[in-house]
Amino acid sequence: MDALSQDRERAVIATGDDLTVLLHHPDAIVLLALLDNPAMDETQLCILLDRKDLPGEVLEEVLRRKPLIKNYRVKRALAFHPRTPRLPSLRLVRELYLMDLARLALLPGSPAERKRMAEEQLLARLSHLPLGQKVALARRGPGRIAGALLAEGHQQILSVVLDNAHLTESQVLKVLSREVLSPGVVLAISQHRKWSCSYNVRLALVRHPHSPLTTILAYLPELTVSDLRELAAPGVVSESLHKYLLAEIHHRTHQRRGLHALKLKGSEL
After folding, report:
1. pTM of the full predicted structure?
2. Residue among 230, 187, 192 nearest 205 (CA)
3. Which pLDDT tens digits describe the chain residue by residue (269 residues)?
């Protein structure tokens, strides 16, 4: 009997340290035999499923064994494994718990479609979540989820979600583009140490009707003249802000002309 056949036979009856060693065997035949070992428990199976080099046929065999995938830890391990077949993996994602969905959506190397599915599941559950779980997601959830929580506007969540490392400028701008938005959200963004310094966010804040006037006026000197002119077009901002935009454009234009005149005089001397 060759060595591989011996290892296969050992895999069916191994226990203890011998079984642990076989979990790292390179051959799929031996790993498949381990699935028939009555000593193979949930923890050992999850160690096996944690192998990123696990052959596809082993994953497929685990998926075929219904009693195995009734266990949540096994289900989660399969959903997280990059080699799990597409359709079964998407089905398993729907059955994951909340924070496992968040982890999967952020997992490096996980298929993009699986990540999107995890995000969609999170978004579908958001409205039914208690505040504590929303705060947890606001702190470390994916960018799309952070954006959705920001748009909800809960006061207990705003400061947390704006500090979320996965929240992107595009998500903040998407929130600020909403027609219906709580004034508290706009105020929180305008006062945040990071987002209030972003040029594009400042531009969006100037456009938003809920932005505090004093904050907007502080932004105007830093906007380009072309952006000021675009904002001053009819119907873009309120009448009260419109006059300040025109005044800033007028000031910049005359300032530029004055500098140009000084340069001309200097060149004539």
Report:
1. 0.86
2. 187
3. 688 999 999 999 999 999 999 999 999 999 999 999 999 999 999 999 999 999 999 999 999 999 999 999 999 999 999 999 999 999 999 999 999 999 999 999 999 999 999 999 999 999 999 999 999 999 999 999 999 999 999 999 999 999 999 999 999 999 999 989 999 999 999 999 999 999 999 999 999 999 999 999 999 999 999 999 999 999 999 888 999 999 999 988 877 665 554 555 556 55
Asked if 222 contacts 202 with a C-beta cutoff of 8 angstroms, the reply is yes
Residue 56, in any domain of the structure: yes
- For the chain, the domain total comes to 1
Please indicate, yes or no, if residue 199 is contained in any of the structural domains: no
Answer yes or no: is 222 within a domain.
Answer: no
Domain, as residue range, for 45: 1-95
Instruction: State the maximum Cα–Cα separation within the chain, in Å, rounded to a whole number.
Output: 103
**Residue by residue, what is the 3-state secondary structure of 52-121?**
CCCCHHHHHHHHHCHHHHCCHHHHHHHHHCCCCCHHHHHHHHCCCCHHHHHHHHCCCCCCHHHHHHHHHH
Is residue 59, in this structure, part of any structural domain at all? yes
Q: Name residue, tokens 């077009």.
A: 233
* Whole-number Cα distances in Å, 181 to 153, 174, 238: 8, 11, 17
Inter-residue contact 141 to 122 (CB < 8 Å): yes
CA 141 to chain centre: 6
> Contact at 8 Å (CB) between 60 and 85?
yes
